[in-house]
Design a protein that fits this description.
The complex is a heterodimer of chains A (115) and B (115).
Chain A lengths: L4 E3 L2 E4 L5 E6 L6 E7 L6 E7 L2 E5 L7 E4 L6 E5 L8 E8 L9 E2 L3 E5 L1
Parallel strand pairs in A: 2-11
Antiparallel strand pairs in A: 1-3, 3-8, 4-5, 4-9, 5-6, 7-8, 9-10, 9-11
Chain B lengths: L2 E3 L4 E5 L4 E3 L2 E3 L6 E6 L5 E7 L5 E3 L5 E5 L4 E6 L8 E9 L6 E4 L3 E6 L1
Parallel strand pairs in B: 2-12
Antiparallel strand pairs in B: 1-4, 3-9, 5-6, 5-10, 7-8, 8-9, 10-11, 10-12
Classes of the chains: A mainly beta (115), B mainly beta (115).
Chain lengths: 115, 115
């Protein structure tokens, strides 16, 4: 257990519905990342927060996706009007901008299935 | 652009034999390289990293990796494989553009250790 927790672990939804995932990073970590992993592929970067500021968004993050990190603690990732192509594992990672800043610690992920 | 390649989809090895999982990279500047392991329905677990210094890096669970600048490789190795090492292994390089330090992952290599 790395200390990064994600909820829910699994989500099944119908096409067109909205879904929201939550990530609780390791408490002293000020950097938080979201990645998406599809079957047979490595994780792909989606977005990055330093404290509460969202500093980078991938082109993979269409306007149906939004992420927040209020107060620089937990983060949420919302997908509106889900499509079958959104089916994937969504991974959250956190790290500290200090001596060990290069090691990102990952949660177990939220597996999304869009029917 | 930073990238990594894992040329083997799967590696099969007998328990007790040495194992090697290959990774090559392409970066501008000095590479920051990582290996992560993923067990079924789990997030990624950090194994080891290369930032600078000795070309042979030791990590968790008896794994080590050899950095070779001339061959732009960062192969993962273990002297004696265990059945419990069977998992999905990802090589990653840090993309430091903007200071955001996101990770760029390879497609992964499935390691199967047979009794």
């Amino acid at each position: 257990d790395t200390g990064v927790s994600q909820d829910p672990r699994h989500k099944i939804t119908k096409r067109g519905q909205n879904v929201t995932f939550r990530c609780d990073p390791i408490s002293e970590h000020n950097r938080l990342y979201w990645y998406r992993q599809t079957l047979g592929q490595g994780p792909e970067f989606l977005t990055y927060f330093q404290n509460e500021a969202q500093l980078e968004k991938s082109r993979l993050l269409s306007d149906r996706f939004s992420a927040e990190r209020p107060k620089g603690s937990f983060s949420t990732l919302e997908i509106q009007r889900t499509e079958q192509g959104d089916s994937a594992m969504y991974l959250c990672a956190s790290t500290w901008a200090g001596l060990e800043e290069n090691i990102q610690y990952f949660g177990a992920g939220t597996r999304l299935s869009v029917l | 652009a930073q990238s990594v390649a894992q040329p083997e989809d799967q590696v099969n090895v007998a328990e007790g034999n040495p194992l090697t999982v290959k990774c090559t990279y392409s970066v501008s500047g000095n590479p920051y390289l990582f290996w992560y392991v993923q067990y079924p329905n789990r997030g990624l677990q950090f194994l080891l990293k290369y930032i600078t210094g000795d070309n042979l890096v030791k990590g968790s669970y008896g794994f080590e990796a050899e950095f070779n600048k001339s061959q732009t490789s960062f192969h993962l190795k273990k002297p004696s494989a265990l059945v419990s090492d069977s998992a999905l292994y990802f090589c990653a390089v840090r993309d430091g553009a903007g200071g955001y330090n996101k990770l760029i992952f390879g497609a992964g290599t499935r390691l199967a250790v047979h009794p």
